[in-house]
Amino acid sequence: MTKADVFRSLHRGRVPGDPLVLPGPWDAASARVFAEAGFPALATPSAGVAASLGYEDGQVPADEMFAAVARIVRAVDVPVSADVEGGYGLAPKELVERLLEAGVVGCNLEDSEAGVLKDPRAHAAWLAQVREAAGDRLFVNARVDTFSCGIGDPDPAIERAALYVAAGADCVYPIGAPPDILPLLRAGIQGPVNVGAPADGGPSPAELGALGATRITFGPGLQRRAARALREIADLLVR
């Protein structure tokens, strides 16, 4: 069984209240911490990796992002999925090749650019090309950005999710969806649903799982908490 097979199997048979929790490492050292803690897989956040490289979110050159992700993969034995934003303008075949070269087993792909939603049918067609190029070698997590773009109605998110699943996405991620809408999304979406953990407070992973989440990711939240802790240490040193 390949690492991609292992990663895909982790999403199957999840019961309510027991979602797959995927911490988001931003560098090799943080990846080792999470792996040594016993997490079975990891999912890199683009914003967290960007911060570790000295960039603003969305400003990392593709080569640097793939190199950073490859270092994380080399540091651990568990499967790693990578957030590669909107694919950096790469053609599907090249994007898949770069992901596989980096050693990841999955990817997170956004359906908006600069805060503007992409045409859902065109994006679904692009995802279908990614799936065709990847075969079963990559687990594709299709992000649905309607909520983050200010659309509170869940119907457009469900409609986009249906298109992306039909195109071959293994999982969908309605980022920014309010927790109280999760049962409705769960009922309307086929297959696994990714939910982002709240940055500070809010429902626990188990509670989000009970509401309908198949898996939990953290975006840049863990990196930002680590940065705050480091600032506190720095303040103590200065004093």
Written account of the structure:
Helices cover 46% and strands 14% of the residues. Helix 2 runs parallel beside helix 4 (62-75). The chain is built from ten helices and ten strands. Strand 3 (80-83), helix 5 and strand 4 form a beta-alpha-beta unit. It is an alpha/beta fold. The longest helix has 18 residues, at 221-238. The chain has a five-stranded parallel beta sheet. It has a three-stranded parallel beta sheet with strand order 1-10-9, with helices on one face.
The shape, in one word, is: globular
Question: How would you sum up the major sheet?
Answer: 5 strands, parallel
The beta-strand count equals: 10
- Stretches where pLDDT is under 50 for at least 5 consecutive residues are none
Question: How would you write the strand order of the largest sheet?
Answer: 2-3-4-7-8
Question: What structural category characterises the helix and strand content?
Answer: alpha/beta
- Proportion of strand residues: 5-15%
The total count of helices amounts to 10
The amount of helix comes to 40-55%
Q: On the 0-100 scale, what is the average pLDDT?
A: 97
- CA radius of gyration is 17 Å
Along the chain, the helix and strand elements come as HEHEHHEHEEEHEHEHEHEH
For the termini, the CA-CA separation is 53 Å
Quick overview of this protein structure:
A hairpin with a 2-residue loop joins β5 and β6. The mean pLDDT is 97.
Layout of SSEs?
Blueprint: H1 3-10, E1 20-21, H2 28-36, E2 42-44, H3 46-53, H4 62-75, E3 80-83, H5 92-102, E4 106-109, E5 112-113, E6 116-117, H6 120-134, E7 139-144, H7 154-166, E8 171-174, H8 182-188, E9 194-196, H9 205-211, E10 215-217, H10 221-238
Helix pairs in contact: 2-4, 3-4, 3-10, 4-5, 5-6, 6-7
